[in-house]
Specification:
Bound molecules: S-adenosylmethionine, iron/sulfur cluster
CATH architecture: Alpha-Beta Barrel
Number of strands: 12
GO molecular function: 4 iron, 4 sulfur cluster binding; cyclic pyranopterin monophosphate synthase activity; GTP 3',8'-cyclase activity; GTP binding; metal ion binding; S-adenosyl-L-methionine binding
CATH superfamily: Aldolase class I
Helix content: 25-40%
Family: Belongs to the radical SAM superfamily. MoaA family.
Radius of gyration: 19 Å
Function: Catalyzes the cyclization of GTP to (8S)-3',8-cyclo-7,8-dihydroguanosine 5'-triphosphate.
Catalytic activity: GTP + AH2 + S-adenosyl-L-methionine = (8S)-3',8-cyclo-7,8-dihydroguanosine 5'-triphosphate + 5'-deoxyadenosine + L-methionine + A + H(+)
CATH topology: TIM Barrel
Shape: globular
Strand order of the largest sheet: 7-8-9-6-5-4-3-2-1-10-11-12
Pathway: Cofactor biosynthesis; molybdopterin biosynthesis
Distance between the termini: 21 Å
Length: 334
Amino acid sequence: MIDRYGRTIDYLRISITDRCNLRCLYCMPAEGVDWKPHGEILSFEEILRLCTVMAGIGIRKVKITGGEPLVRKDVGNFIRSLRAVPGIEQVTLTSNGLLLESFLAENPALSLGGINVSLDTLDPELYSRITRYPGDTLFRDQGIPSILRALDLAEERGIPVKLNCVPLRGLNEAELPAIAALAKKAGRAVRFIELMPLGSANELEPIPGNEVAALLERAYGKLISYHGRLGNGPAEYFSLPGFAGKIGFINALSEGFCECCNRLRLSSGGMLIPCLSSESGTDLRRLLRSGVSEDELQAAVMETLDRKPGSHNFSERYQIERTKHVSGMYCIGG
Ligand code: SAM
Ligand code: SF4
């Protein structure tokens, strides 16, 4: 699939649930989230049908995300079925990592092309503050320790791991060098993602990528540009002295990453969304449940592709819509 701006679109991010076991400050409100009723969430069979249709017109890589994908039952079997869809070459997963250790233990032979784990701090109290996760004695072997064990377990199985961290002014600033240090291990990448004006993020202040880079250089030495390819995303990667893994930056606001955008997003409720900043998408759930043919589904996907904008409008949003509610990542297939 080639869009109006000449970009090849071969990557689909699928949110399999809007639910989550955390309530990160930048993603969800603390309370009162209106979860979609089960009947409004696409079944795995429906998602597999859509993936078969989309693989037929060029989708090759799929990322499973949410909400927190691992709170949904039977994700392991779903991933195995997805791997068997003709044309799908890679399936990856994004998770907050809290259930990852047990998920990997229950699915010892799962073929995953990579796992992204979100971790904004290694400090249990700050973790509780940012994620609103109850900070009690469970932290001794659950919580952060379990996330770190899951990273090692994935790597022992040959699954590449990337850590995602959102730098937040006045919250995890001092923690960023410690998070970066997780990339001292070979084969691992730590990426710093600029806060985007989605969900509850408008009350928080981002730290621009160049500021994070300067902070890391003060701690570890000069960042050296890495030109190799790592994964399917928009991150720019660097090496640091003494680091066997890489450091990445996703500077969505200060630099933009739209020229090389390769993706569509499918929300858990079945909306196919052309861009993170899109206010609307195509209701594939309604189409699926009204008994349409494969050709009609393909046409709906192509029509959505045609509405993919050349770039997001986040900078304008920060200036003129700071107080307006915008759907969080967990709603739109983050
Ligand atoms: N629950 C999983 C997790 O946290 O990795 C998967 C879904 S989460 C919505 C996917 C990613 O979106 C996470 O890395 C999270 O940090 C990021 N995210 C959520 N809201 C964001 C925002 N407003 N700006 C930047 N990144 C955000
Ligand atoms: Fe849940 Fe991920 Fe959103 Fe945090 S960022 S609330 S872990 S979906």
